[in-house]
Write a structure and sequence with these properties.
The structure is a homodimer. By secondary structure, chain A is α/β, with parallel strands linked by helices. Chain A has 9 helices and 8 strands.
């Protein structure tokens, strides 16, 4: 089985005016990405947040849903939240994967904007054949800043529709991208893919 | 081009204890599904909400983002929200599509649970060849109740991962399902699909 991790990055990302910021926690993002990770059998979900108070808030929230009253109320959320790990930086997430897997991951950035050299979904799947772990990196706010891109080994081609509109939420985009990489629809089965 | 609509249904849906309820509005659901609809060039997005006060709240929210201060602040949200229409029932949404398109849609339910007779993504795509509009119906809370299923013409096969976990948010699931139906990845292009 491929070894795949998700990262939800709160810094360095852009705001609306393309300034580099650390974004605030959005609780529904943590739930939704943890649920994507659990559905597709991923190996972990990193919440990358450099702000100490925001990281403490994330830790409280994860504990609430994993072992606190939230977990007792809704076991499905507890199961998903068990995949979450907090780090202060993307580098720390990559180091953690290297420790867990014995080798560093291929870090793959995601973007809503076409970039030269972006790689295909099948190219990412090919890295699995040699057993290297893969970390798919998502940005919050207006997306990963260039310095986050520079910390990744590759950038995945954006999701494009028939028009110019390219403003999916990270909640929807993460589902789509992980499904394209790992999902198997009945149609695929019919086509023997 | 295929004529496709989304519906986000707040009644009849199940709660945690499998009782039929009308669920409350979740503003992030409206944003995320509107953004999925805008990205994939859909023809409209119905918010099905039978509770008058909740429908008024939805109307206020849509107006805020479409023509109010929200729309001035973020034009991308205005563009997506322009696709939203409020109805009190699924039947009303189907009637509206019949009026707009000159024929009733094929209403396709979605579910997280395997059901006998569920149809494939390619089967839905085949209905497009004869020009019939398609309405993809999503449930809030714990999913569409049986009586909502009965109002649909077909039910789409669920998204399944390698394990048993099947608790995606409607925000992620809507992205995945619309992408499977309408998305074209670089890989597909390479494969000439």
């Amino acid at each position: 089985l491929p070894v795949v991790f998700l990262a939800l990055t709160h810094h360095p990302v852009y705001n609306k005016n393309r300034e580099v910021i650390a974004s605030a926690l959005t609780t529904v993002d943590l739930h939704d990405l943890a649920r994507v990770a659990a559905t597709y059998g991923l190996d972990g979900f990193y919440v990358v947040q450099p702000l100490d108070d925001q990281r403490r808030l994330a830790a409280d929230m994860i504990a609430h849903w994993q072992s606190g009253p939230g977990g007792a109320y809704n076991r499905d959320r507890a199961e998903a939240m068990a995949l979450a790990r907090l780090t202060a930086s993307l580098a720390e997430a990559k180091d953690d994967i290297a420790r867990r897997c014995g080798r560093p991951p291929l870090a793959v950035a995601t973007t809503a904007i076409s970039r030269p050299g972006a790689i295909s979904y099948s190219a990412v799947r090919q890295t699995w054949t040699d057993g290297r772990p893969v970390l798919i990196v998502f940005g919050t706010a207006w997306g990963l800043a260039d310095q986050a891109m520079a910390e990744c080994d590759a950038c995945l081609a954006p999701i494009v529709g028939p028009g110019d509109y390219n403003h999916l939420s990270v909640r929807s985009a993460a589902g789509i991208i992980i499904d394209r990489l790992l999902g198997r629809s009945d149609d695929d089965a019919n086509q023997g893919r």
